[in-house]
Amino acid sequence: MDLSRITLRPFNLSDINDFMAWANDDHVIRFTGLNGFTSKEDGLRYLKEIAIPHPWRRSICLDDRSIGFVSIYPG
Which residues make Cβ contacts (< 8 Å) with residue 16, sequence separation at least 6? Predict the structure, then answer.
């Protein structure tokens, strides 16, 4: 696999469809503290209010498509 295809970047609202695909998979979110999202509106609210403003939360991307996230805290 070409590792240059994997990047970290801030979330965008345009990530919503990719986000909904993995953020509703119990196997993916098992250890994240997320509970899944019942609607696209819930997902958009999470991106707008939590993920995008979070100073250290980044989308893990493959070919610029969101496939997960990582949160890193100082200290």
Answer: 40, 43, 44, 47
Measure the CA angle with vertex 24, ends 41 and 34; round to 5°.
85
> Which structural domain, as residue segments, surrounds residue 49?
3-71
Taking only the tens place, the pLDDT of each residue in 26-55 is 888 888 888 888 899 999 999 999 999 999
Band of pLDDT at residue 15, cut at 50, 70 and 90? very high
Number of separate domains in the chain: 1
DSSP string, 15-64: GHHHHHHHHT-HHHHTTTS----SSHHHHHHHIIIIITT-TTEEEEEETT
CATH code of the domain covering residue 43: 3.40.630.30
